[in-house]
Amino acid sequence: MSTTTPHEDDVLSAASAIVDAFTATDGDRYFRGFAPEATFIFHTEPARLNDRAEYERLWASWVENGWKVLECESSDAAVQSFPGGAVFSHNVATRVDTGGGEDSYRERETIVFRLDGDQLLAVHEHLSPVPDDAAFAAE
Predict the structure, then answer these.
(1) Is the Cβ–Cβ distance between 106 and 31 less than 8 Å?
(2) Which of 25, 48, 93, 98 could form a disulfide with 68 if both were Cys (CB 3.0 to 4.6 A apart)?
(3) What is the pLDDT of residues 63-115, one digit of tens each?
(4) DSSP result, the chain
(5) 85 phi and psi, to 5 degrees?
(6) What own/partner pairs with CB < 8 Å and gap ≥ 24 does 56-61 have?
(7) If pLDDT is split at 50, 70 and 90, which confidence band does 139 have?
């Protein structure tokens, strides 16, 4: 395990690459930001996804059914770096076409990164809904 502490700009860049690929509904580019053993907890899914391959299969089924991202805006980003990795959190406002109509979400997202050589890879992603009465910071 690396003992190097990633710089905040590098964490923001790695997170931005993931968000940008998600916004483009570019699964290949999106999943390159995640380690194969990454886990995912989404409030919209009934169970934890235990690795990237499981999420890739779910993503492929969404896309096959007409799902695509129409808009995704990140705000209120925060980075907590530590030796070997970092925690990135932000608010995200997403609008999607489900293949059967549009849907939108206001969520809080946390992505945990680890240093893999000189690359930051996400090892965990967690999404939770923003409560209706919570302030939603916009930049």
Answers:
(1) no
(2) 25
(3) 999 999 999 999 999 999 999 999 999 999 999 999 999 999 999 999 999 99
(4) ---PPPPHHHHHHHHHHHHHHHHTT-HHHHHTTEEEEEEEEETTSSS-B-SHHHHHHHHHHHHHTT-EEEEEEEEEEEEEEETTEEEEEEEEEEEEE-SSSEEEEEEEEEEEEEEETTEEEEEEEEEEEPPTTS-----
(5) 180, -165
(6) 56/27, 56/31, 59/27, 59/30, 59/31, 60/27
(7) very low
